[in-house]
Structure formats: C-alpha cells, structure tokens
C-alpha cells in the first residue's frame, strides 16, 4: 500500500504519539494489577494475626504493608523525628526510635505522632512487643527539605540516611509503623493504609486519547484526500 505524500509527515507525528498513548495505557494496566494485588495483601494482613518480623529483611518491597510484630528494646538515645504533619490544628512529626533485637537486625520504629516541640512522651524500658506494618520509606524528592542533624529532624523516611546519622549499623531495610489506640502517646496509626486505586481510570483515559487521535486522523486524512481528488 502506497502512502500518499501529503500524509507522510502527519503519519510521522501521529504514529509515535498513538503508540506512546497506548504504551501509557498498558503501563497503567500493569499498575492496576500491582495495586489490586497490594490492596488484596493489605486486606488479608489486616484481617489476620500479625506475622513475626523477620530476623533479616531480604526483600523490602515484598514485606511492605504487611502486619508484623517485633520484640526488642527501644534505644531512646537515638530517637529522631520524621516529617512535618498537621493533625487537627497542630503541627507535629513522627517519633522514630530504633528497636534493638537480640541476634536480629535493629528496626526503625515509627512509634507515632507528637505535636511540635513535645518531648514528654513515654519511653518504655525493657523488652516490648510492637505491632505495626512494614514501611520501606523513600529518599524524598527535589522538594523535600534537607534533614537537620542538630535537632535530629528528617523530612524523608530514608532508612540508610537516618541510620547513618544516628550511627546505627545493619538496620532493617523496612521500618515498622506502630499500630495502637487513639489515646496513646505518641499517637500511633489505627489501621493499615489502604491506598487508592485509580489506575483503571488512567488506563481508560490514555486508551481513549489514543482512540480519539486515531479517529481524528482518519477523518482528517479522508477529508484531505477527497479535497485533493476534486482539486482542479
């Protein structure tokens, strides 16, 4: 099939754009499958008992958002504060304290939220059992403020960076977000997170744009070719 010369340049623009839109739609379908599986795992974990936190974390992402229980002693001398989070009308941050475990990796535990400047929160001594969910954290982005080592304040839950700042070796590559009652101090989370799953809508949008582009091009190309046929 010979492509009319008048359509060659438009096709060089339309075909890559069409393929890109389809690729984006396919990527969103992959994200949909991943998010659906993640939510199913979270729901299953929330319904069942907490699993023991492994002695060593091998695959952080596979462990993330699973309900776990860890036993050890808190190292309060290495407590840091994470985030700048508003609850109600008060600003505050998460208290993060290492949990030291005999014969196992220490864990950074996000014990819960306290208002800005509060230091009189409980610091339990001796062995404790912490139930929560695994959180791999992130290194932040361009807009994340730099940490303040002087006040031990971090704005990204960057586990390697926090561990280096408090001289904590061989730390687990996931943290543990504590679960607990609403009246506890620091204020823990009350339930496992349940992320939104808008990826089907995104996929429909991308595939819809691809279809609209193709339909527009076909109509435009036919009109152009008819004009050329009837041109004197």
What does the average pLDDT come to?
A: 91
CATH hierarchy, class of the domain at 50-178: Mainly Beta
Order of helices and strands: HEHEEEEEEHEH
Strand runs, count: 8
Helix content: 25-40%
Give the distance, in angstroms, between the N- and C-terminal Cα atoms.
25 Å
Q: Round the Cα radius of gyration to an integer and report it.
A: 26 Å
Number of helices: 4
- Unreliable segments (pLDDT under 50, ≥5 consecutive)? none
Strand content: 15-25%
User: Structural class per helix/strand content?
Assistant: alpha/beta
Q: Which of globular, elongated, flat, extended, rod-shaped describes the shape?
A: elongated
Assembly type of the chains comes to: single chain
Keywords:
single chain; 232 residues; alpha/beta; OB fold (Dihydrolipoamide Acetyltransferase, E2P); 5-stranded mixed beta barrel; 23% strand
Task: Describe the protein's architecture and organization.
The chain is α/β, with parallel strands linked by helices and 232 residues long. It has a domain at 50-178: Beta Barrel (OB fold (Dihydrolipoamide Acetyltransferase, E2P)), CATH 2.40.50. It has four helices and eight strands, in the order αβαββββββαβα. It has helices spanning 5-47, 60-63, 159-165, 199-230, and strands at residues 51-52, 67-74, 80-87, 90-100, 107-115, 127-135, 153-154, 175-178. The protein has a five-stranded mixed barrel with strand order 2-4-5-8-6. α1 (5-47) packs antiparallel against α4 (199-230). The longest helix has 43 residues, at 5-47. The protein is elongated, with a radius of gyration of 26 Å. The two termini are 25 Å apart.
């Amino acid at each position: 099939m010979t492509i009319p010369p008048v359509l060659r340049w438009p096709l060089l623009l339309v075909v890559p754009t069409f393929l890109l839109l389809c690729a984006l739609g396919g990527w969103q379908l992959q994200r949909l499958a991943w998010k659906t599986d993640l939510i199913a795992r979270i729901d299953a974990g929330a319904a069942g008992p907490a699993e023991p936190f492994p002695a060593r974390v091998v695959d952080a992402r596979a462990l993330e958002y699973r309900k776990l229980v860890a036993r050890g002693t808190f190292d309060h001398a290495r407590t840091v504060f994470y985030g700048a989070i508003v609850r109600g009308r008060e600003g505050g941050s998460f208290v993060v304290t290492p949990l030291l475990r005999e014969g196992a990796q220490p864990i950074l535990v996000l014990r819960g939220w306290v208002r800005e400047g509060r230091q009189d929160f409980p610091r339990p001594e001796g062995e404790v059992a912490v139930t929560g969910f695994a959180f791999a954290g992130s290194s932040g982005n361009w807009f994340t403020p730099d940490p303040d080592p002087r006040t031990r304040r971090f704005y990204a839950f960057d586990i390697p960076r926090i561990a280096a700042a408090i001289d904590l070796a061989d730390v687990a590559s996931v943290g543990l977000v504590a679960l607990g009652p609403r009246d506890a101090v620091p204020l823990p989370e009350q339930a496992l997170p349940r992320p939104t799953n808008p990826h089907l809508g995104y996929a429909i949008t991308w595939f819809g744009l691809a279809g609209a582009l193709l339909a527009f091009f076909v109509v435009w190309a036919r009109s152009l070719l008819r004009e050329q046929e009837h041109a004197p």
